[in-house]
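FAQ: What does the model actually see?

It sees only this:
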Amino acid sequence: MLEVFFIVIVVLSAASMATTLASHVSLHLTVGRRPCARAYAPSISILKPLKGHDEGLHDNLVSLVTQQYPGRFEVLLGAADADDPALAVARRIRRAYPEVCIRIVPGRSGPGLNPKVANLDALSSAARFPNLLVSDSNVRVGPEYLRRTAAELHDERVGLVSNVLVGTGERSFGATLENLHLGSFVAGAVCGAQVLANHPVVVGKSMLMRRQALEDAGGFRGVEDVLGEDYLLGRKIHDAGHRVVLSAEIITTCNERWPARQFLARHLRWSQMRRWIAPPAYACEPLLNPIPTLMVAAAFAALHSGSLLSLSSTLWVRAALLGIALKIMADLFALHRLRGTGPRGLAPLWIPLKDLMVLGLWLGGWFMRTVQWRGNRMRVGPGSSLSPIDPAPRRVARPIVTSPVAEELVDEAA
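And it is asked to produce this:
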């Protein structure tokens, strides 16, 4: 019986290593792909939903407004709360770059339970151009980002373009965990799904869409009451007959001083989202996380020496440890490929601990049904649908003018 259990663990470990390495190969193939050489620069409205003062917000916005883009583009900045401190940064950016069309859409939210979608719906209503780029406030991009991403739209069949994401700037334990995870598990899963299964997995940090494709998919209103609006928008646009592609252009998110609880809270929320959107795929996620099973194999072999598969326990322990070392090296190689540098100091030693924590979050995703997001507690259901827990859900669909600052912004927007 012990040998049967050990064989199962070994098979699972081998399958998990193979799947993980395949996803990493897909990552390298994706980011190594030559960008589209065809000159194509359609007019783009960039929608930047703001909420609070994110780490590096000023530099993130500067990286966007200073794009080397031959076509026309405008940047729309908005927050649901007219007193949001991010709007002060937005006004400074607008004064510093008068040559760029930067517009502020203040104090508006929509009727849905997803606060980001409500903000995007307001921003898109004010947008003037036929192509919409959703760019999260914590995203920082290179000077060629807009041109290289927009080049994918030269194919008229393409309705949505997303990008590979990596985290940078870690200065705390939680930020280190976040950036290690984004640059390995998340990036590998997104690229692997696209390359190996031709299955688009859209991460909403960067989404360039034709407005017509968005409307064909039901618009932002169609995902206003779900947690996984980015993935579902990608599926809806694909199901509406448009192609969804993954650009080779890499974007970064600045994560510097996260506490560990922030990492755990985000990825527990993401785990619940994935579990409710695609349970079969979610059940297979441990195949992208081989270190826990390799640890079990090493421990089992060390504790049960003798006739395990007629080989010495020492050999099995060495094989398991070699697999763990290979996984760590593959993660570091992927991270270096995505951002040009590896993690700082002893951060590589945290990879096994991070992977164990991720397994725990995966298990939690099966049993937990509530999320805490942007100050709201909500229950998650099938399709990542949201329902309020508080007796009086916040469903505001009107301009909010709460201060002289807000009134000033309304005047500016008008």
